[in-house]
Design goal:
Strands 5-6-2-1-8-9 form a six-stranded mixed β-sheet. 22% of the residues are buried. It is α+β, with helices and mostly antiparallel strands.
Amino acid sequence: MVFLLFLLVLSPSFHPLYLSTVEIEIRADRSWSGKMRIFYDDFEDALQNAFGARPNLDQKHINLYREQISNYLNSHLIIWSQSKGLTFSVASLLRTADVITLNIDGHDPWPDQSMITNDLLMELFGSQKNVMTFKLRADIRTVAFTKNHASQEIHF
């Protein structure tokens, strides 16, 4: 029995950590871009849940799913300024080992005050945590999002 548990823990598909990270860099002119990292198998689960078919997010096929990925991200990572949502697009996708790195480009200027909702993967994993770091010059803010706290306000 202990041996079976040991094999389960060593299995490459076993990872009890449900975590994504997003780093947003806000430039002096308030344009912005970001880098997101997410476990590929969890992301495949989320896309399958959202769109019905399971994607193959290996490096050879990942760009075939760019529209689905963009649609999922824009409905689960929402940035509000007053009553307007900021828009962004996926600039590039890269799968390395177990992680997908997505580079995003903002289309709207970053506001002084914003409400962020980051509930990526939370529809599937109750223990999912999403960490976002915001950097404007030397000012850095880090915010953690959980299922019970999926929306938070950011001031710069």
